[in-house]
Amino acid sequence: MSHTAHIRSHRKPRNRSASTIAMRAGVAGGVLSLAAAGASASAYADEPVTQTLELPTLTADMATQVAQSADATQQAAANYQLQAERDTAAANAAKQAKADLADAKQKAEARKKAAEDARKAAAARASRSAERTTLSTTASTGTSTSTSTSTATGSAAAVISFVKAQIGKSYVLGATGPSAYDCSGLVQAAFKQVGISLPRVSQSQSTAGTQVSLSNLQPGDILYWGSAGSAYHVAVYVGDGMFVGAQNPSTGIVEKPLSYDPPTGAVRVL
Predict the structure, then answer these.
(1) Which of 150, 164, 170, 242 could form a disulfide with 180 if both were Cys (CB 3.0 to 4.6 A apart)?
(2) Homologous superfamily assigned to 144-268
(3) What is the pLDDT of residues 232-254, one digit of tens each?
């Protein structure tokens, strides 16, 4: 046994105040709380965290701005459409104006040509009228400005001899002889005697040779009625102001003076 075992301690017992005990208890409690919080956080560390965002509230001002923006966009689209329609209308108007101008020019040219044709036709009628007057006067006085039959020689004499030999035969439309002829059939057959091949119809025969004036006819010239290229009747001039032709079914092939039926023109193939 220690030599101090039975000796009482002379140290005074500590006098712990209530506040000190309370403070220690509080500290201990706080440590426990932190520990518990840590454990809790550890337990939920693997769970996903959901974050909620609040969208801004659409206020009256914002709604007005959106509406105004939509109106502006719609108005701009309407403007673009209107401009496009105007551009299309302008292009169509320009195209139509160009077509109208071309049509007007064409009509003006047609009127000009018609006026020129009318002037030429009037001049031709006046010329034919003057020539017919001359022919009528010559026939009535018995004077001829042309070569007479008696002086015709060669091919002209052969043609005249042939057509005079046909006088009294019948006129039959489309006939080419030998017992009947129509007007162009007789002329074609007459010139065939001298080796000249003429077209079959009067329209073509009226342009078969050189055009000559009715005041300068020679025996053997081809007379035609109507215009050159569209004549409706032909005959052969035989001199002394006379012609032989297949006139019509009533008269047949006859010899007549130019005044009987003044021709329009004449061509020379000999």
Answers:
(1) 170
(2) endopeptidase domain like (from Nostoc punctiforme) (3.90.1720.10)
(3) 999 999 999 999 999 999 999 99
